[in-house]
Write a structure and sequence with these properties.
Arc Repressor Mutant, subunit A; two-stranded antiparallel sheet; about 425 residues; 4 strands; 18 helices; two-stranded antiparallel ribbon; ABC transporter involved in vitamin B12 uptake, BtuC; mainly alpha; elongated
Length: about 425
């Protein structure tokens, strides 16, 4: 436990948090614009620039690597757009062609020259976030990791640009055509965003490696997107998700004595899996619960409708053969439906019989009236055959609002087809 609270551990987690905040912030726009793999493309395509800078300077890191990587990041963005707009390739195909070609070129340069220059190729290719505290610079009497200063500056830059151009980025991300119609240059905003992505990818690639960069660009924003539909909340949640992944990933890597970068990416995937399962709106369990609740409500209303029609038959208002066949929802759904109707105060037990209460009769009348109105409307206006009207009416009777019900009644009565409608 003491190792986890050491200065080296804390600095490593701080670097992971800063990298996650930078990547997740701009990654939200990539996810919303369905350009998630662009972060992957840029983070891989900067390798030739880093390789040339390393061969020129003789060391990995510093301004030569940053400038070289940034130049290749910009080139990657331009080549992708050129192939997409001028070459006729789809966006994903353009990304695949550019990043695979540039990344392969970088791998060739690095592996060919690594031995002669005494450079660790694996460190450049995969990153070594746990070694970040070893490269420090003096600041205010303290030894601060160089990566903390770099990522801190990039985080401030990203925050400032996003706050300054919040409206422009938002409009272009959701509707580029609307942005152009409002007088905004969608292309300028797009290239500005891509430049921001390149800067973040370069800074994070140098600090934490390509594995973590790819994960942090895509997974935290995708996780947050499953939890909310508001951009501001999504961005905040994605930063929280990435920060948790950085801290928990480092702790688990220390416990299991494995790669910190790989474990951070794994924790990101675990958080995404939890969001997929437990998300309040888009999660699997929440969707199952809503579908089950809807099935129970529909079955309860069908039960009310059946009791209402049986009352009509007993009172001589309608012949028994006019009562349609009640749909079956299954034993379990029917059991929950009756419990739901009882808890809602729609039905009551009278001896051995189940009868409608006054609120239940009103609700049942609404459902039955919606059913009959749609049957009349479908027959008179849609020319739907008589044997097809009941099934269609049963599907719609549970979602017809009072306003639509009144409109259907007026429409039908205007054609003098209202004699058979319930009063």
């Amino acid at each position: 436990m003491s190792d986890l609270l050491s200065t080296s551990a804390i600095w490593t987690m701080v670097v992971g948090i800063l990298a996650g905040a930078c990547c997740a912030s701009v990654g939200c726009y990539l996810v919303l614009r369905r350009m998630s793999m662009l972060g992957d493309a840029i983070s891989h395509s900067v390798l030739p620039g880093i390789a040339v800078a390393v061969l020129w300077s003789g060391e990995f890191g510093g301004w030569p690597s940053f400038v070289g990587a940034l130049a290749l990041g910009g080139l990657c963005t331009l080549l992708i757009e050129l192939l997409h707009r001028q070459g006729g390739l789809s966006a994903d195909s353009s990304m695949g062609v550019v990043f695979s070609g540039l990344f392969s070129l970088g791998v060739i340069i690095i592996t060919r020259e690594a031995r002669r220059k005494h450079i660790d190729a694996d460190c450049i290719l995969f990153g070594l976030i746990e070694a970040v505290p070893l490269d420090t610079v003096p600041l205010a009497g303290m030894q601060i990791p160089r990566a903390v200063l770099t990522l801190g500056a990039v985080a401030i830059l990203v925050t400032a640009v996003i706050l300054l151009l919040w409206k422009e980025f938002k409009i272009v991300s959701f509707d580029a055509a609307l942005a152009s119609a409002m007088g905004l240059s969608a292309s300028v905003v797009h290239y500005l965003l891509m430049t921001l992505v390149a800067i973040v990818a370069v800074a994070c690639f140098e600090a934490v490696g390509s594995i973590v960069v790819v994960a942090l660009f895509i997974v935290p924003p995708a996780t947050a997107h499953l939890l909310t539909d508001r951009l501001g909340t999504m961005m905040a949640l994605s930063i929280v998700v990435s920060a948790v992944a950085a801290v928990v990933g480092y702790i688990l890597a220390a416990i299991f004595n494995t790669s910190v970068a790989g474990m951070i990416a794994v924790v990101c995937g675990m958080e995404f899996a939890l969001a997929v399962i437990l998300g309040p709106r888009h999660g699997i369990l929440s969707k199952m619960y809503r579908q089950f609740s809807l099935s129970v409500r529909i079955a309860a209303e069908d039960y009310l409708g059946r009791l209402f029609r049986e009352e009509e038959v007993l009172q001589g208002q309608r012949p028994a053969e006019s009562v349609p066949t009640a749909p079956t929802a299954g034993v379990l759904i029917d059991r929950f439906a009756r419990r739901y109707a009882k808890q809602a105060g729609w039905i009551a037990q009278q001896g051995e019989s189940t009868v409608l209460t006054q609120p239940g009769r009103l609700r049942a009348e609404e459902v039955v009236q919606s059913h009959r109105l749609w049957q009349e409307f479908a027959g008179g206006n849609l020319s739907l055959p008589a044997d097809h009207r009941h099934e269609a009416a049963h599907r719609l009777e549970h979602i017809i609002s009072p306003a639509l019900r009144d409109e259907l009644a007026r429409e039908i009565r205007s054609y003098d087809h209202g004699d058979d409608l319930p009063k």
